[in-house]
## 1
Amino acid sequence: MQQRQTIRQMFVPVFLVAMVGPCTASWPLPVAPASDAPSTQAMLRGLESQMPHRTDARSPLRTHETEHFILVDAYDPAWSTTLGRALEDAYDAFYDCWEQAGFRLQRNGEPLVWVFFDDSRHYESYSERADRNAIWWTKSYYSSRTNRVALLLPSAPEDPARMGLPVASADGQAMPTDDTSPGLDLPRARHELAHQLAFNAGLQKRGVMYPIWVSEGIATNFESGRLDTAVARTSNARRCRTLLRAVKTDNLLPLREFVVMTRTPPGKGEDRTMAYAQSWGLFRYLFHNRRNDLKEYLSALHALRPGRRSESEMLREFERAFGPLSVLERQWREHVRSLRSALEAPAPAQQVAADAPAAR
């Protein structure tokens, strides 16, 4: 019980660690019913065919299964067990948050697959074969084509995780490590899991084209564990600071342009960082202030047929749910400006105590 409580505490961080991976998609996508889901062995055979570095492998892929996940080629059993429990806790938190907010989610029973790599070349060749896109600019991504998460683990000799040290994050949260197991960036893992769950729980539908503020808004808001946290500092302080910097430097994109964007700039540049932060902020604002309209908007997109849509169509969909952009633009910018005072205000004593590290 004490160990499980410790793992649960790991999913209540305050800050973000680093830029996390994209949700990749290609339209239209075939979507198999849950009843047609392949067996684990068939899934592994298909997966191995997309991993060129295992062409001559004599040993089978290592797997660790939990109630809802299959971890493929993870490290030692103890590390896989700890990670599996952490993902299960995040899974529960995701469903709790949305259902308590009045959203109806589905549970199809199909295992959620996570694939791990300790060599960037293998990771990139897998992404090129599985997703027709060599993903080199990020260490993790969820693919709506395969419905899998792929994650590159620390492997360089000088990496702290390979020297028995935890991979530090800005909030001090890290997966435990030893001299053979890698650390794991938990906000990154929660981000990718939120992408995966959004498409499997019915918030999003595979094959439908979504603006990035929806896809990345959902994911960035779960980097800290929950979307329904009311205080900016405990929601995602780093994304909040980036958003405020965008305002200060006049880099906040007008909603007319932003709400129809479907791709983030590749790489780790400032434009990409700003796009993720604005996605976090806009989705959070609509969740807390226009929740019924957000429900209607997501439901309307879910009802669409797979395929691409024009920017004018996407703009009409947005205004049908949220009203004239000119009005929302003004309200949104007023909200962003209010975040600065919220972020800089002293934290309540109770919150400070809750955020303080536990005595060892």
## 2
Amino acid sequence: MPGDPDSKSLSSNEKRSTPLRPTAPKAGAFRNADQAKKPARRGLWKRIRTAGGEFFLVSVIVHAVLLLLAAFWVVQTVQAKRRLNFTSAPPSGAGRGSQIEHRVQTALRSQNMSAPPASNRITSTSSNAKVSLPDVPSFNATSSALPNQIAGIAGTSVSFSSMAGKAAMIPPSIGMGITAFGFRGAMDIGLQGTLYDLKQSASKEPLSNPSQAVDDLKTFAKNWDPAILGKYYRAKNTLSAQRIYFPELSAVEAPRAFGVESEVKPSLWIVHYRGKVTPPRNGTFRFRGFADDWLTVRFDGKTVFDGGLFVLDPDTHETKSTWIPMQAGKTYEIEILIGTYPGSMVYANLFVEEKNRVYEKDESGEPIWQLFQIGKTEPPKFPPESRRLPKYSKEELVFRLAR
């Protein structure tokens, strides 16, 4: 009842005893709570930066650029090695002798040779032995012999458009460069060498009597009369040699060096060098050397040395010449003849020994002589495995080419 204190108390107790109804969650409340528990998604760049990866990424980019540059350099280097580089001769007037340096690298492919069996050779261990030339049956000068199998020594040629003077007048058929037999280009830097083919006449008629040719050579080694060689075929190109020093090579290399490999078979040919020289100082000297098949030297008007396998001059056929007094500043005529008879292979080495000089010795105890050379250009570089190529002294004994 209104105004009754008990009724007020009851109402209050009823209110307190009435259970509270839970309030229903709003839609999406649980989803928002779960999302609140999960960290916010971050981009790749932010995650890398958070992990300190900014420097890592920069390092990756730098390394990638370096790899690309390295690959480009390797490709350019490989291509450059495949290119053929040719060195032209210096123009006329640019200097001679020591101002000219030409090097050559040869590739001897001896393991692939299919040469016919070589003729039996007579050898001796005695330094005073005399070797006589055996009889050789006649043969057809036009028959095929050893094929051209060693390349690279005399096959270089270059363009002549940028050359001047004497070098520019060289026929393109012979080209320019160093060969084992001299410098191509008829330049005045050494002894002038001429190749003769003793298997054919001057008019290119085949000759079938090699014994006659050998007899002519023996006569030539006595008096060095050019008329004796005049009846044989002569290559029109000449080489300029500063030394006689090359290992065992295919006999085809000489005709190839002179540009006549299609006309001259690799046997019974000779190269005749001639010129004038001045010794570097006063002294007493002698020639030394050996060759397959011929190596004969005429100095100051007389034959002084015959060091080939086959004899041309019995009076001087030794491994060394007699002692020869020389004067600095004096001009001496010199002629050198090298060549091959049966063919197949050829080599020649000519040295000079100075009297009373102490020489270094090689592994076998043999003295290491000085090369006979004109000018200070280095010899061609032959493969280390080359045969018949003795060491030479690095102490130069350089003769000067006289005019």
